[in-house]
Structure formats: C-alpha cells, structure tokens
Amino acid sequence: MVLYVYCLDIFNVYTCLSLVFIVFRLYILSFLYSFFLYQMLKRASTSLFAKHSFVSSSLSQSNRVHRIITSRSLIINNTTIKRKMSTTTDTSAPAAVPAETQQPQHPKHGSSKKKSKLQVSLKTPKGTKDWSDSDMVIREAIFTTLSSLFKRHGGVTIDTPVFELREILAGKYGEDSKLIYNLEDQGGELTSLRYDLTVPFARFVAMNNIQNIKRFHIAKVYRRDQPAMTKGRMREFYQCDFDIAGTYEHMIPDSEILSIVVEGLTALGINDFKIKLNHRKILDGIFQICGVKDEDVRRISSSVDKLDKTPWEVVKKEMTEEKGQSEETANKIGEYVKLNGSLKEIHSILSLDENITNNPLAKDGLDEIATLMEFTKSFGIDRYISFDLSLARGLDYYTGLIYEAVTAASAPPTNAQELKKKVKSEDEDASAYVGVGSIAGGGRYDNLVNMFAEASGKKSTKIPCVGVSFGVERLFSLIKQRTEAAAAIKPTATQVFVMAFGGGKDWTGYLPERMTITKELWNNGIETEYVYKTKANPRKQFDAAEKAGCQLAVILGKEEYVEGKLRVKRLGPEFADDDGEVIDIKDLVPTVQQKLSEIHKDGVNEVARLLRGL
Amino acid sequence: MVLYVYCLDIFNVYTCLSLVFIVFRLYILSFLYSFFLYQMLKRASTSLFAKHSFVSSSLSQSNRVHRIITSRSLIINNTTIKRKMSTTTDTSAPAAVPAETQQPQHPKHGSSKKKSKLQVSLKTPKGTKDWSDSDMVIREAIFTTLSSLFKRHGGVTIDTPVFELREILAGKYGEDSKLIYNLEDQGGELTSLRYDLTVPFARFVAMNNIQNIKRFHIAKVYRRDQPAMTKGRMREFYQCDFDIAGTYEHMIPDSEILSIVVEGLTALGINDFKIKLNHRKILDGIFQICGVKDEDVRRISSSVDKLDKTPWEVVKKEMTEEKGQSEETANKIGEYVKLNGSLKEIHSILSLDENITNNPLAKDGLDEIATLMEFTKSFGIDRYISFDLSLARGLDYYTGLIYEAVTAASAPPTNAQELKKKVKSEDEDASAYVGVGSIAGGGRYDNLVNMFAEASGKKSTKIPCVGVSFGVERLFSLIKQRTEAAAAIKPTATQVFVMAFGGGKDWTGYLPERMTITKELWNNGIETEYVYKTKANPRKQFDAAEKAGCQLAVILGKEEYVEGKLRVKRLGPEFADDDGEVIDIKDLVPTVQQKLSEIHKDGVNEVARLLRGL
C-alpha cells in the first residue's frame, strides 16, 4: 500500500513535473508567438495609421505625432536654409523662402486658429523633382529631337502602363531587383512600378505575338537608388528607348542602333562622346578560357562591370576573396579586360589569340564583330566606337553586343573616395562624388521575349531584340551646363500682346474689345495674351508683353478703335521710337501673320541653338 | 496515512486536472495564435513570394502554387477566347491569338523541359492598357492639338513626379480618397500615386512662392476606380490640365478657361458638346436658403452631383433618409436644381428671386455670373454654355465657378440599370452600362494653394486659381469611333525606301551600299528604311515599302549604281508603270526633298483629317 501510494505519489509528481514542463514550454512558445505577432501587427498598423493620419488629425491627433511631424518640418526647414538655393536642376528641395516667410513652425494663423492641423512638408519625394517651365522647354526639345530621330528610322511608338504585374518584373534585374518600387497591396493584383522600358516591351511583344517591330518609347522609369540630382541620377527618370525586334541577319539591326546613338547624341550637340562596346559571347568565352565555372560567369561579369569606377586591384580582390576565383584565373581575366581600342585593333589582337579562336563562344562573337566592322564603316561611325573588353553591363538579359555612350562628365571626380567620405550620411545626395555615368546604353537580348512566351504557356517563339536607351536627365544635365544659352530660354510661346491705350473720364479700358481681338488671333492659331484688367496703363501692358517675350503688339487706341482701326507695332528696345502701323480691323490676321513670318524668317530659335551647342 | 495518501492523491488529481485544463487552454490559445500568425504570414509571404517567385521557380516550386497559377491563366485565356477581339481601344486583354498558338496550358516545351517554371500572366494590371502604334498616333495628335492650344494662351508647362508624399494628397478628395494608389512602405517616405494634376500643381505653386502662372500639364493620373475600358474610364489615364493662378479681376481668367474648353473640343472635331456650368456660391446659397445646415452642405452637394445619372426621386430619398434633411428642405432644393438654360435665362430667373438676392453668398455668385455673361459674349462662346443648377462636382476644393463639358456619349445608356444587372460581378468592366462621362471639367479653387502654404508653416498667401482638365482617354474613345478615318492611320513616318535590284552569280545585294545611301538620307532628316537582308528580291522590297507606307523608292540598280547613278521612283498602284527617274548619286538629297515636298504639297494628313472629323 505504502509502496503503491509511493508509486502513485512518484507517478503524480512525475506527471506534475512533466505537465509543468509542458506548460512552461507552451508559455515560452506563446510568448514567442505573441512577440512575433506583435511585430507583424506593428508593421501593419504603422502603414494603416499613416494612411489615415491626415484625415484624423483634425479630430484627435495625439500630441506626440504632432510633435514628431512638427520637428520633422523644422529639420527640413533647416536644410532649406543651409542648402545653397539655385534655380538649376535640383528643384526637389523646397524653394528659397523669402526672409519674411522664415517664420517659426507655428505661424500665428496656424497655431491660434488651427492648432490641431498637421504640418505638411512641401517637397517632392526623395530622388524626384519638379521640372520648371524653362527646363521643360529644354526637355521637350530633347524629346522632339530623339523622337524625330526614331521616326526617321521607321520607328513606331507604343505606351505601356507605369506599373506592371509584379511577376512580370520578377527575375529580370539580378541583384538590382531590390530597387524596384512596389505598390501597396490594396486588394487585387500585386503590382510594381516599371524599372525600365525593355521588360514591358518584351512583355508587349510576347503578349501580342508580334514577329517584328521597331518601336520607340519615351517614358518614366523608377529605381529606389541613391540619387545624385545635379548629375541627373534620379529615382524617377525618363528613358528614351529604341528597339528592333525580329529575326534578321547578324549585326544589321545592331549597327543601325549604334548609328542611332551617334545621330542622337550629335543632334543634341554632344560631340565628345565615345561608344564603349563589347560582346557578351566574347566576354563569356574569355571567362571560360580563364577557368571561371559557368555558374559563376554572371557574378564575375558583375565584378568586371565595376572597372569603370573601381581600380583593377579592388576588382581582383573581390573576384578572389569574395567570389572564390583563383589568383591565376583573376590574373588571366585582368590581361583580357585591360584591352581596348578601335574595333579593328582589338579584333586583330583577339584573332591572333588561339585561346579565343578555339573557344566556340568567343569565336562566334569575334565573327560577328568582323561583320559589324563592315557595317559601321558603311554608316561612317567607326571613329566613335571603342572596343572595350572591360564593359560588362549589369543586366542579366543581354546575350550579344553591349554598349554604352560616355563623355568626359560620365566619370566620377578623380578624388571621388575622398569626397565621399566628406558626405555625412547615406541619405545625402551623391552628386558631389559620382559622375553623370553613361548617357546612353543598350545591347542585344535574344531570349527575353521567349522567356515571357514560355512562362505564360504560349508556344516558344524566339524573337531576337536589340536596342538602346538614352538617359534624358543625364543628357539634360550636360545640356543645361551650356549656361549662357540656357539662360535665354523663354518658357512661353506667346507672340502677340493685345493692348488698349486711352484715358479720360469716359475711358472704359476696352476689356471686352481686347478679348474679342485676342480671340480672333487665337482662332487663327496665333499665340496671344492681354492683361487681365479692366483698365491697365501702357507701362504695365508693355512690361507684361516684355515678360511674355512678345515681339509684336496689337494696340486698341481709344480714338483709332472706334474708327475701325488697330495699331500693330514691333516690340523691343530697337523699336522704341517706332509707332507701328495703323491697319483696318479686318486686316488684323493677315497683317499679324505677315509680320510674324518676317520676324521668324531666319528662324533658329534659342532652344535649337542651345541643343546644337551653338 | 491513508487519509494523507488520499488527500495527496486528491490533491494530485486536482493539480493534474487543473494543469491539464491549463495545458488545454494554452493549446487552444496557441492554436488561435498560430492560426492568426499563419494568416498574417500568408499575406506577407504572398507578396514576398511573388517578389521572388520567378527567381525561385526553377528551384523548388510547389505543385500547388503551380496549379493555382496555371488555372488562373486558363481562366484568362478563356476570357480571351470569349471576348470579341478587336483592334479598338481595349488592348489590355491579351491580343487575339492565332489558331495554331491556341495550345493547352502546358505546351510541349514548357511541360517537358521546364515543369517547375512558374506561369506568368501576360497582361497589364486591371484598368490599364497598352497603347498600340496607330492608337499612339491619334493620342499624340490630341496632345499636340491641346498643347498648342495651351501655348496659344500663354501657357507654360511644368512636370511633377508621378508620386507625391502621402500627406500632400491627404484630405483633398473627400470620399474618393479611398481610390488613391499607395506605394509600399519600403523604408523611407510614405508616398502615393497622384490622383489628379491639380493638387500637385497647388503644392508646386505654394512650395515655390509663385504669385501667378498659367501652366499646362499633360500627364498620367491614377484612380483605383471601377474601369470601363471602351468608354475611356480607366485606372491609369491622362489628364490635360490648364490652370491660371494669380489674383485678377472677377471672371477674366474664368472666361478664358471656358474659351479654352470650346477651342480645345472644337479643334478635336467635337462639335455637339455643351458646357454645363454652375457657381458654388450660388449652390451653397441655395442650400442655406433651403435650410441645409452649414456642416451638411458638402454632403448634400454630393447628393445633387448624382442628378446626371440618378432620378430626382432617388436623390431626394438619399437627402431625407440618409442625410437627415426635412421633406420641405429637399423639395425646395428640388425646385432650384431643376433649373437650367442659357446664362441669361437662369440669371433673369434668379435675379427675380428675393431669397437669392437677399442671400449674400448667392448674390455674390449671381453678380459674377452677370460679369461672366459679358465676357463669354466677347469670346463668342455663349451658345455652348448651359447654366445648370444641378451641377455640383465632387471635389471639395472648388470655391467658385464649376463646369463640365458633355456630349451625347457622356450619358449612360437609358437602360443602364437593367444592363448593370446583367453583368455578373463587380470585377467586370463597366463599359456596358456607363457613359463616357464628362470629357472636360474644372472650376475655381481659391483656397488650395493657401491650404498648403499654411499647413507647411509658410506665410498665409491666397493664390486664387481656376482651371480645366481634358480627359484624353474619353476624347480618344470618341475620336476612335470615327472609324473609317481611324483605319487609315499609318503608324510609321517613313517616307523613302532604299532598295537594290540585281542578280547573277556576282550579285552581292549591295547591303553596305544601301546602308550608306540610307545614312545620307537620315543625316538630312529624311525618314528612310531598307530591308535588313544581304540579298532581297524586288518583290520583298516593294512589299516592305508598302507596309511602311512609303511613297518614294530610291533604287540601287546593279549596273546603274557602278556608274554613280540611282533611280528615284514614286510608289503606289498609280505609278506601277512608271520606271522613275535616273539621277546622279550626288543629287540624291535635293531630288528626294523636292519630290517629297511635291507629294505633301496640299498636306492635310490623315491624322489631322481624323481629328478634325473630316
């Protein structure tokens, strides 16, 4: 009995202990679960809260949030003061605030009447900017130049949405995929902003079963990269792409793309550029020759790609220490990638290298280069091309020729590392220590369309493609440096200013009459303005005409007008003493047209002059 | 002892039971936690998974996911087959697939070789579409028409980023704020896609302390609304905005905006439109007169706004039952909002109404209408305007004149309710039962800029604004209906086709020579193409020229070319028997220029014809 009791007791104690242990374990587990759950919920609620914060602010905004946001705008305003304000490219920062508006963060009005109102930062998101009116004139001129170039080559244009299904973009950009902007999951499909125009183009070609197309596309793309605003490296930026899709003989479309690069940059007044060119087949052949395993090729290629900004020693170290290549392999690669010169020179050197000619991949590439040499000669663009074995380009999808156009401004400053150290945080703009980078770039990608066709369950159809992308912001930053010309850009197109002169007690100001005259000019396609005022004195009207950059005034004189007459007068200091010509109202339109065509007779306007670098 | 044992036993049993109960409770709790956690993780991982799915798919894609996505594309393909395929506006659906590619979802290649590869839906996100080449020609023509109109009125253009800080958009769109697209919080700022161009414009004006500007902006905006693709109601769509900011005398800028609406629509060949116009001050005065409390005014205004698609009885019910207005108030409102007619008619009626003339708000508005009447007469645009007291417009920020341009196609079909019932789910496109809606709209918003200035802690500065927004997709859908003309649109600009004719054993095909000739034409700005083939027979070259829509051929004849001669020939059936003209190579460019200028002499091209509705 005692034994039994004892046993029972032991048993119970054992049970109890084991149960206690289980309970304890479960407590730990629940605690971990709860903690994890708490973290998840915190994330979720942060975004939810942010979504509704402004709306709820007038109701019951907590002081804490108010304080945080207030101090945030304080910091921003400090930055405003510290930063050198200019009207140049970086307008993403708040504009210069006149002294009298440099008020404390609770202006009288705000703090007394609307204490609960949330403070808002008046700025654009990081890496984006507003384009001002005169900058837009230059940008539009770049677009017009490039799109007429593309049309000259038989291009058609298409447009695709700014965001794509996320699965379309996945797996196309290698390590850079982390830079893709995702849209919030608000129910429905998962989408992301496009990262380039090439992948949407390939999706378009595959989706519509297109066999061949020459298309151009000028549109914004998005990358969450470190911005360098004054160097034209931004998170929202334009690409101008021209691509030729279809099965053609080797190098015919490729050489046309190279010609387009030359024609485009020349048309934009850029003459000191060169096109660095390489061939993925040759590069990959070289990696094989040097003993890089197939699975390592793209990673080693990425290392080589850094050679434009990084010394060989650093790149070599990355290959051997981080990417597991032998010293010997790295040295061999080093010998090849230092080669650069004209197509002819490098082609000769490689043709004499038995390692190259015995490697089927490299041999293929080399033969294509031989064909290319003939075509670039026909197009007369040899002298712009530099065969550079260190050019690798980051994107995964290239399969043949690759190229980049660079100018002197493309490279970072020589003391970049030093300058970089001076910049305090990662959040700062990188303009001080980076270059403009390549101003155009592209290559051949023969498998991308088929990748989409196959992945969507369509019949496998290989649509080879080759294309180029011009970087508009980078080109803009170069063109904008031609400052004297840029300063003369007039943002309006206004040609004619309609005025009324008169006085005395019965003077009405002729407002409705000015409206009617202006309207007649508008109806005939003539850019016309007038002062939005019942009565305006002549000085104010001349000032407004000058501000609008008008060269012609149409004047309703108090007495002349009642007799059915108008006065047409040239504007500008050289015509100060010229009273103009009195005409019949019915002759208004032909007279104005005649005078404007005389004014624009030898018409290279200032934008064209700026673009051509005159 | 026994008692003790018994007690111990009881105690133990009790302990055990309670412990078991605790354990059980904890199990339940952990189960609930786990389930909740699983749901959270599932959501999170769906997006994570989607992000990496393509990359990981080749490694270890689970069959289940594979099946889900496969069946999803199956459904999509069903839709493809069921839908009437056309080359009209809705290209968001996968394009018509030729019979031979209508394969099962596991094509041989895909299923055998790459079984684990994730299936991708080749489509654009809901409510968005690709723009094909010939549609782009029409869209570009619309843009050119409107931007030259805006320039004619002294407008300058600016550009703002596609996304704004979320706080900038918050609180500007009333109930429609739920339609804003948010970007994911990927670290950094919270941002959203712009919902219109007006709020970013006001932010720009406030940020840069601009006192006056006439700006236009043609850009995409984003709304997560129910799409009706063939009616031009989309989630991604263009707006063409013109706004005048600055302090001017009453109604001068407002009447110019109305003139712009008339000029813009007329220039696009739309003549059967009318501009519905109202004044927020009059409307709000009427609500006061009818007994609506100040805090209810915007909500009642929203109800009135529905009168263009909803009968009065339904709107009245909403006012009385949902929005707490008395029967009497609703009836009074009903009397006023049914008024519409010319400015003059309605102005006379309201001027005789003592309730109106005694209400300071309504009186103010009525006086402005009197001024407006004078100006619209000067501009000669009276006949397009209909004073419609039922027009309210949804957006919160309007403070004065409001207007909308509508055509016959704007209204929904008369049996809309019936048609709507036939559509199975909310996910379907709404094209069947909605109208095109208003094709342009806008109004005066005098407080928006100041709202930003104050909220950012700047000095309060009132910058009154008035503007209009043209809906490009809706205009496009109307223009596209002029089908015969639309069918003639040629997407390329190519003018000249360079060909080579020859034969025999020693015939090279003159590829490099064709390249050189083509390049000379490109260098002189002439749109030129040639066949990308070493040797191409004449038939193929003529076919390619016809496909590109060329009207002129430059021919390198085998014998002629070696003698320094080229043949220039008109293309088209009427020139079939014409052998063209033999010229010296050095005369190529002037000859081609001369012939092209003859061809385009009386040059109204087909796009212009389409736009003008000829």
UniProtKB/TrEMBL annotation, chains A, B:
Single GO term (MF): sequence-specific mRNA binding
EC number: 6.1.1.21
Ranges of compositional bias, category Basic residues: 106-117
Cellular location(s): Cytoplasm
PROSITE patterns xrefs: AA_TRNA_LIGASE_II (PS50862)
Main subcellular location of this protein, as a coarse class: cytoplasm
Transmembrane annotation, as ranges: 12-38
GO cellular component: cytosol; mitochondrion
Single GO BP term: histidyl-tRNA aminoacylation
Function description: Catalyzes the aminoacylation of histidyl-tRNA in both the cytoplasm and the mitochondrion.
Family: Belongs to the class-II aminoacyl-tRNA synthetase family.
Name of protein: Histidine--tRNA ligase, mitochondrial
